Hints:
- The complex is a heterodimer of chains A (304) and B (120).
- Mean pLDDT of chain A is 84; it is low at 9-24.
- Chain A contains ten helices and seven strands.
- Chain A has helices spanning 27-40, 42-55, 64-84, 88-101, 108-129, 134-177, 199-216, 233-248, 260-268, 282-293; strands at residues 17-19, 24-26, 182-185, 188-194, 220-227, 252-256, 277-279.
- By secondary structure, chain B is α/β, with parallel strands linked by helices.
- Chain B is 49% helix and 18% strand.
- The interface between A and B is medium-sized, with 18 and 19 residues.
Amino acid sequence: MTRIDTSPDSAQIQDEYIETAENTRPASVLLRELVAHLRDNRTQLREEWARRITEAKLLTAMTKDEIFAEATSVYDNYVEALETGTFEALQAYARNLSERIIPRGVETDEVVGIVLLLRDVLARSLFAKYQTDFTKLNRILDAYEPAANRIANTVAVGFVQERERIIREQQEAIRELSTPVLQVRERLLILPIIGVIDPQRARQLTEQLLRGIRTNRAKVVVIDITGVAAMDATVANHLVQTVEASRLLGATVIVTGLSPEIAQTIVNIGVDLGKMNTVGDLQGGIEQAERLLGYKVVPLVETQ
Amino acid sequence: MEVPLLKQGNFLIATIQAALTDADLLQFRAALVQQVVRFRSQGVIVDVTSLDVMDSFASRTLREIAQMIRLRGAETVIVGIQPEVAFAMVQLGLKLEDVTTALDLEEGLAHLSRRSTSRA
């Protein structure tokens, strides 16, 4: 007698006949029996699972009612995936579930943990049911295990993909938020930079600034880097290029707020400092910019 | 292709309307300096708004134009460099050192007017 392997890669569990001394039954028939068993015992198996989840201290970010509601959905989707052998619906459900629970602070290990617990709970119930017929138990498990593994995989991967998507979105949002080009006077722009500058952000900064110079017809730009702790030689070079490119558009750049570390970096890369106009702090930079533009700020005379 | 030159009082305005070949650039340089001499111009504006690329030869020629015109006692202002072109130029190390630049024609003329009145 030869056993034919059930490949977990196939979307549909194929019909096959496994010969035993007693009878032959296709795997799909066994699967239907399995699914019927899981549906019939839905209530107590779901409770058993919820109990194990709490025992394992998983999903602590959610209330009991929430866990129960989600557990019901997961259970039903799980059984349906077993029944149909198709996983698209499960994938969609997994992404949907992830979208809801990630903001609640649920971690990857929790999601993987609860799916594996369900897998165990259902497997144990199969052991209990077929304990008198070891051969049949084996065949039932042959049908169950590949599908159960595929399900655990699908849910875990769906969760991780959703997390990665959210992280990418947040990174994009941060990038957009953090490089405003502000006009504070006619012909005077301020570019306050805060945080970490990587080469990509530096490039985006330059493009935004040059566009801003043209749109606002700026003659002076103050780039303030007080909020930047450090930059490597690549980014420092990029800053120098930004100053040069701005000059080609007819704008003078004043850089303010260089930390000692950044000053060191700039000296180390050998920039011709005669070309780079720097002032200690933002206030000084704005005052110099105003002078360059021909403004003078005077206090209003108070009338008695 | 010839670059059209306009006279505006003491200044000359040259508008480059499309990418020029190396030969065109050299011809432009010669013609421009000739006109500066003929009209005794005090300033020249070279408008490159229409250029969407600037290579090293063009960049060098513009510098040479500014140097030659300076030897005639006049000043050159390059105007209208596009943001993308400026970005590409600095990345290639084409910095147009010692050449005055301005955002557009209006700014360029304002700069030249200021300089010539301060000299008068």
